[in-house]
Amino acid sequence: MKNTYYYIVTLAMLILAFPVKAASEAEFGKLSKAYTLHADGSQEMRVQKELTLFTHAAMNRVYGESFIIYNPEFQTLKIHDSYTRQKDGTIVKTPENAFVEVLPSVAADAPAYNGLKEMVVVHTGLELGATIYLDYSVVTRPGYLPELDVCEQVEELSPIREYVFSLSVPESKPLHYEWLNGKAAPVVKTADGMKTVTWTLKNVQPRPYSLEVSLPAGNVRAVVASTYASKADALKVIKQQLESNGKGVTELAQKLTVGAQTTEQKKELLTAYVEGLGNCRLTLSQTGYRLRPASEVIRSAYGTEAEKAALLAALQQAIGIRAEIKAAFPKTEDKDAAGLAAVSGLFLFDKGIADIQDFVSVVDLNAQPIILEKVSHVISRTDTLRVSDKTGKVLADGYRKFDLPQARGGWASYDGRVTALNTTRPVNLLLRYLPDEAYTYIVKIDAGMKPVVVPTNKKIENAVGIMEVTVKKAEDKIQETIFVNFVIFFSFCLYRPLAEYGDFRLFLRLVKFFPFCGTQNGRVPFPRIFSFFRCGGIIFYNP
Question: Which domains, ranges and CATH numbers included, belong to the chain?
């Protein structure tokens, strides 16, 4: 009976010490976003939020300020209400000097876009338990934005008790829309010549943080919507801005490719030039879906992603190379639901998109599907290491430590470490590419040196692919030699948390307790002395 009592007390203490779920740093009581296209072509985006703060980090870093980017030449920012309700109910109105207009950081090095403004709303009267209220609209004049075009992520970093998202357009306008990576049925109403589509969600959980989440991986919920008649009509906005090559573009292309013998050499030279220009990180929507002429991009020596893609196409076309701009979109059931706001990249060729093209939609500027040429990620590397009593790092008792060469690229050098951070995942893991890598290390040992080595052959083979590590001594009467082989081959990129991710994790077990070698001058090794070796981000050691 006495023992039972102690067990109960101990269990109760453990339950109290380890809560089931960590508390959130903040919580949205309500978050509302409404997009409206009026009959005269003007648009309004209205955002309303109520956010309660629970931690100092939320108060001082994450949510202490709100940021709104707009173009005052064509848009008007209206702050309908902004205040803080403190824990005791006291209302602290946001003072005028807490509304600070600055140049957006993404436009800082782009004089052509210095007209953009970022309103920084500095929330005042903050304390733990306080609730921030902010209600504002960005109203766009007719003609600036071609159509209503939305790609809006649903989750925030904190939970949302009630989330409302709505679209309102004239009844006569086409409206394509889709909810991505989840199921949520909207309410559709028509009144006074306007069609309104509204999603209302309760208890929206925060999006995963620092877990390599993305829309293509299926981890992020979003709404895409467009009043373009079709995706082709949307892309026509970009296509119409591509100019015929002027004299300056042709002269530059010829100058840059002087001496180049092949088409590939010319492409490389032109690509290097464009990539060397300054990068402006403004999105298509932030520039009003406008591109500066190629001549202006050349003169200013910088450009947005879209402008640099257009310039590269113009340079290649100027010297007779066929060049075609492509666009990447999220995958949708309604191919016309994703407009220009949803474009994840405009490019001639993009290795990163080519690697994951099964998870995105790639089209040309006529909205025709494109299959990108796959990039080879095959790595086959052999390194030779010579071990003597004059090399390596000296350890105690006559031991020396030798490091295997670090892989300079591929999954072994970087991605393996990143993906190994979590033993479990609540969401999908999408690898950036499929690795196919083989590393061989030949270790030659001079006379007088004795290797401390345990021959090993560890291999895991399942639906994910193959991973193998072997260590073996070679039959060499002249010089003692050790071979280390490390092989990685994956069959597919996407791993779901409750299905394939378990098999994927098996591969990562080879990073632990892998014996390789330390050496000493003719002595019996002590178990407490160990060396470790890093091979492509994998640690080998012998305790």
Answer: 26-232 (2.60.40.3140), 236-364 (3.10.620.30), 378-541 (2.60.120.1130)
